[in-house]
Structure formats: C-alpha cells, structure tokens
Design a protein that fits this description.
- The complex is a heterodimer of chains A (289) and B (383).
- Chain A contains 12 helices and no strands.
- With 289 residues, chain A is mostly helical.
- Chain A has one domain (60-287): MetI-like (MetI-like fold, Orthogonal Bundle).
- Chain B is built from 8 helices and 20 strands.
- In chain B, the strands form 4 sheets. In chain B, strands 6-7-8-3-9-10 form a 6-stranded mixed sheet, with helices on both faces. In chain B, strands 13-12-11-14-20 form a 5-stranded antiparallel sheet. In chain B, strands 15-19-16-17-18 form a 5-stranded antiparallel sheet, with no helix packed on it.
- In chain B, helix 5 links the parallel strand 7 and strand 8 (190-195).
- The longest helix of chain B is centred in the middle third of the chain and has 18 residues, at 170-187.
- Chain B is elongated.
- Classes of the chains: A mainly alpha (289), B alpha+beta (383).
C-alpha cells in the first residue's frame, strides 16, 4: 500500500469513527427535534382530524406560559426541593462509601444501584403503597402526632418530592462517589497540618475537590427530575401536577400537539438557562477562597 | 500565637509505634535542640517517616511522648501543633494557586493580612512572580519550593521534611540541598529532615540520627559518626566500610590487639567500641592505601597482602577491589591527584592503613566480613 493512501486513511479515520453516532443522533434526535419545533408553531386551531398547518404561530408560547406557568414553576420547585434533600442524603452517603467503607465499598455501591434494576414505574408504585393513607408510615406519623388524625402523605407535595428524591438519588451519588474516591488523602493530612480543623478541611479541600462530581451529580439529578411526570402522577394529585404531566396529557389525552410542543421547548429552554447559570457560578473557583 | 515559648527543643521520650505485630518505631529517645538542622537517616522501612508523622500528629504513638520545650504535644491534633510538614509528595492543593497554597495555613488561623507574608516567603524560595500559577503548571523543583514556603510561612517551631528532595533529579537535588540549608540558616527554625540519602544528610544536617529497624543506632555530628561509627550498620550505611571479622581479647596498655583471619593487628583503645570477643575491624575505603612493596608502607601503618581484581576510574578517584589471602574482598579508593602510583588488575599489592583511622565495632558471633566493594551502587555501563 502506498504511503499516500495510508495518510489519507489516517485523516479520514476520525470522521469514519464519528459517522455512525452522528447519523444516529441526526435521525433520532435532530430530525424529531426540528419536527417538534415545527409542531410548536402550528396553527393552534387545527386538530389531528382536520390536520395542522405550519403558520409560524409564535403566539403559542405566551399562551402556554400563561396557562401553565404554575406547573412549570412547580416542576422547578419540586426538583429543587428534591435536590436539596438528595444532597443531604447523598453527599454523606457518597463520602462514607468512598472514604470510610473499606471492604464494604463494592457491596454498598451495589446497594445504591440495585433499585435501578427494577422498573421506575414499579418502584414508584411501591412508594404509593408505603405512603398510602392506611400504610404503616402514615399510621406511625399519626401516632407520634407528626401528622394530624386526618393527615396524609399521598397526594401531597411531600410525597412527590420524596418520590423524586428516591428515584434519582443514585444519579447524584455515583458521580459524587467517583470524585470523592479519587481524592488524595495526603491532601487532607496536609490541610490538618496547616491548621485546618475537620470542618475547615472539608470546606476548603474536600468540598472544592469534589466539585466536578457534585456538578455532574446535581445536573444528572436535576434535569430528569424537572421533566419527570410519573412521581406527580402516581404520588400526587392534579394539584401537584408538574409540567411533564401537562405535556403528557397534551400529547396523549387532549391531542393538542402545538401546545405540548411549545411547552416542551419552554421546559428545555428553562432547564438550559438554569444549567448555564449554575455552571457559570459553580465552575469558577474563586468561590472557594 | 505561641511564638513566645522560650526553650523549644523537640524531645521524643521512649517513643514507640506498633502496627499489629510490627514495631515500626522502637523506644526512640532523642532531643533536637532548637534551631538545629536534624536529619533522620535510614533505609526505607526503618521507621523514620513514622517517627516524623508522630511529631506531626498524623500518627498516634503506641507509647511514649513528644515534647516541645516542656509542653507535651503527644495527644494534640495536627492542627493544634506549632509544627508544619513538607510532604514527600508535596501534597499541594490542586484547586488553589501558588499564593493561596502558601496562604492556606495563615488563613486557617484567621490572619487577615497575608499578602505581604506570602510575597516575602515566595521570594525567600525564589518563586517571585509565580503566585497565580497552579501547582500543575510548575516543575517538580518549583512544587517542592511551594511546599516549603507553604509550611515555613507559618513560622512553626519545628519544620518536618519528609524526603522532600526524593522526587528530584540529582542536579536539582544538590542545588535544593544548599538552598534548604541557606533557608534554614536564614529563618533559624528547627528542621527535622527525613532521608535515606546519606550524602544529603551529611551535607545539610548539624546532627544525624542513623535509624535502623525502628531504633536509633547512632546520633551525632555527621563527621563524628562517619569517622567513628557506633555499629556495623552505621559503618556501612553512612558511607562505606571494609569490615573484617576479628577476635579481640581486651586492651593491652593503650592499644587493643585483634586477630583477623590469622593475622595480628592492633589499634588505639579509644578507637574501639568493643574490645573483647567477636568484633569487626573497620577501615574506610579511602583510608585504605595500596603499596607495591613492604618498604613503601609508611612507618606505623598496618598492612595485609592482596591482589587487585578490579580497578575502576570514576574521575576523582580510582576504586580498587583487592582479593585478600583468605579470599575476602576489600575496597580501596585512591584519589586521582597525580601523586600515587596506579595498579593494574592482577598486581600484587599491600593494603595498608593508619591504625588511628581504623575502628573496632561489636560483631554478632559468626557474622562474616563485610566488604565496601559489594554494595549495590549504580555503576556506569560502558557500551
């Protein structure tokens, strides 16, 4: 084989490697996305039976925002609350597994991941049983007067936030674990040697050095939690519906495609804005002075 | 803070550390005078780093005490001790720049005006202008100096150095040795330096403690320990020695006569660590001279016969290996100063020494000769 064709092959190789993935994304992500974008601009008076016309109806956006802003706000509120709860549970958990578990490390990791082996739907249905009005948990809480005699958990925001926390917790714990596990213990010794107490060592060394995992984990948690509708559907009531539920019903029940598409795009834009803002702030290390 | 303490000698009292069945540090008892440069020298696994970590508070002693002046700091947490460490791996904080690494200790103690101190410290270690760099952007030697500055800026009573030059190449290491010595003289803080490099310990330290298997074998000025080692381990770890298995039967007058491999020798009694029973007769290779015939041996020198089996010129000296009559091997280093005669391989020679340069050490009965020529040293390979 002549050297010319060899070097030509070398130049082509990266493109050949990218091609299958790019084609996949093109066919199954970009084209549907454009389709969805077009649908969000359809004439809202159309219907599946009469057919839709692309009339560049930008008015769809303010219309859905006005109609469904409470659900949109609720999505972010519930996801944020669940994230806060998950951080409280997940950071100590990841820290303990990564740095204190010794030979139990792998077993504990399996325990974190194990729920993912069962279906999302089944897990959430199990929570419905646990939180039900006649379940042991509600009974216990009523007995200790944390709940009133007619108090309930199911069909409340608390249930939805608990469900979101539970379902997405592994997505937060795993990346966090990975970055804490890599942390060099000699840096912690050095901090102690340099007059940092345990709390200060955590604040000044452990926490900043776990930021990559923390950022990855919070994003992996927050993005699907915001768009989720199963938890609100099964553990909440229409009063707890999130934007995902509205999109679900727009596409599958009410068959109002322009509305569903416009809401989807709004949600996407809102998540993108939150993520970019977050990365801007958390990605700079001047925070850690 | 605690800057006003008067007598700041560091004292280790019967310090012992066991890890399960292994005794890493065995009843170590020593005093490091305030302001001195102290080296803990020993092979890897001898317990020197464990000793250092107990002073830093990173390891808790099984028994014994660590005292600073008359203050017992044995049970204090690392961050409560006026002691700072330069770690072997440097352990610089990767998320902070050079200036913030150096400022770390000051900030943790709530000192507000750190900029001036940081700047002065960076100029002391000759890193001016590097304050905004990240550790990853620095060379090994520069990282080492940041680690030093980060510890020194706190004005500890004792600075601990855990093989801080181990990762540097030879040239840089020699330069940093002089640099460290200069800085120590300048700041006047007690330095405790752990190393396995005897040359490093001898270049820098006022006092060297030679450690082996968890114990201090000898403590003293490096030149004194070199001239008159206390044990066979010190004689072979701090420099090199020819050790001949010999028997002694007590002193006669001012001398101690010994028998080695059938030959009789003697040396002054003040050169004997042991004068009865199994002993080693020791001579440093550079104090063992070669002569072609008996009339060339200076008066008062003692000698034995041998044959040159190897002669390697290493520049400043020629290193000879001599096979003795009983099949043993001796090493002799002759300075290439143009004065002495050179001997080819195969030449019959007399190896001679001044008895005042020899020394007598206790020997385990049954232990054989130890030759300075058999040590594993990197030898230049000719291709």
């Amino acid at each position: 084989m002549s050297p010319v064709t060899t070097s030509a092959r070398r130049r082509l190789l990266p493109y050949l490697l990218v091609l299958p993935g790019a084609a996949w994304l093109g066919v199954f992500f970009v084209v549907p996305l454009l389709q969805l974008g077009a649908a969000s601009l359809y004439d809202p008076t159309g219907s599946l039976s009469t057919g839709y016309a692309l009339t560049w109806a930008f008015g769809n956006y303010p219309a859905v925002l006005q109609a469904y802003w409470p659900q949109l706000a609720r999505s972010f509120g519930y996801a944020a609350a669940a994230l806060a709860l998950a951080l409280l549970l997940g950071y100590p958990l990841a820290y303990a597994i990564a740095r204190k578990a010794g030979r139990w490390k792998n077993l504990l990791l399996v325990c974190v991941v194990a729920p993912m082996f069962t279906s999302f739907l089944v897990r959430t249905l199990a929570w419905k049983t646990i939180l039900s009005d006649h379940g042991w948990l509600v009974g216990l809480l009523r007995d200790v007067h944390l709940l009133g005699p007619n108090g309930r958990l199911l069909a409340t925001p608390v249930a939805v936030v608990l469900g979101l926390t539970y379902n997405f917790l592994p997505l937060l714990v795993l990346p966090l674990y990975a970055s804490l596990e890599r942390l060099d213990h000699r840096l912690l010794e050095a901090a102690g040697d340099l007059y940092a107490s345990g709390v200060q060592t955590f604040r000044r060394v452990t926490l900043p050095l776990s930021m990559p995992g923390l950022i990855a984990g919070t994003l992996l948690f927050f993005i699907p939690a915001t768009g989720d509708y199963i938890n609100a559907e099964l553990l909440g009531s229409p009063n707890e519906y999130m934007v995902g539920n509205v999109i679900d019903s727009a596409f599958l029940v009410r068959l109002d495609y322009p509305q569903g598409a416009a809401l989807s795009f709004l949600l996407m834009a809102a998540i993108l804005a939150v993520v970019v803002g977050y990365l801007r702030r958390a990605g700079t290390d001047e925070v850690w002075r | 803070m605690r800057q006003e303490s008067p007598a700041g000698d560091l004292r280790l009292a019967n310090l012992t550390k066991r890890f399960g069945a292994l005794t890493a540090v065995d009843d170590v008892d020593l005093t490091v005078p305030q302001g001195s440069f102290f080296a803990l020298l020993g092979p890897s696994g001898c317990g020197k780093t464990t000793t250092l970590r107990m002073v830093a508070g990173l390891e808790e002693p099984t028994s014994g005490q660590v005292l600073l002046g008359d203050r017992d700091i044995t049970r204090l947490r690392p961050y409560q001790r006026p002691v700072n460490t330069v770690f072997q791996s440097y352990a610089l904080f990767p998320h902070l720049d050079v200036a913030e690494n150096v400022a770390f200790g000051l900030r943790r103690r709530g000192i507000r005006t750190v900029d001036e101190q940081v700047r002065r410290m960076l100029s002391l270690v000759r890193l001016d202008g590097h304050d905004r760099r990240r550790p990853a952007q620095l060379s090994g030697g520069q990282q080492q100096r940041v680690a030093l500055a980060r510890a020194l800026v706190n004005h500890p009573q004792v600075l601990l150095l855990d093989e801080p030059l181990g990762a540097l190449d030879l040239t840089l290491r020699r330069r940093m040795q002089l640099e460290l010595k200069r800085i120590q003289t300048e700041v006047g803080i007690t330095f405790v330096h752990v190393t396995h490099d005897q040359e490093e310990a001898m270049t820098m330290a006022d006092t060297v403690a030679v450690m082996n298997a968890g114990r201090i074998e000898q403590l003293g000025a490096p030149a004194d320990s070199y001239e008159f080692p206390a044990t066979a381990f010190v004689a072979t770890f701090l420099g090199r020695s020819n050790l001949l298995a010999a028997e002694a039967a007590g002193r006669v007058g001012a001398d101690v006569p010994v028998t080695a491999h059938g030959a009789r020798f003697s040396l002054p009694a003040d050169r004997a660590r042991s004068d009865r029973g199994a002993v080693y007769l020791g001579v440093r290779p550079e104090k063992l001279h070669l002569a072609g015939s008996a009339d060339q041996v200076p008066h008062g020198h003692q000698h034995l016969d041998g044959v040159v089996t190897d002669a390697s010129n290493v520049g400043v000296s020629t290193q000879y290996l001599i096979r003795t009559g009983w099949g043993g091997e001796l090493a002799a280093f002759a300075a290439n100063n143009g004065l002495g005669r050179r001997f080819p391989v195969g030449a019959s020679v007399l190896a001679h020494w001044d008895p005042r340069h020899a020394f007598l050490l206790p020997r385990e009965p049954g232990a054989a000769d130890r030759s300075a020529g058999l040590r594993d040293e990197p030898t230049p390979v000719s291709s």
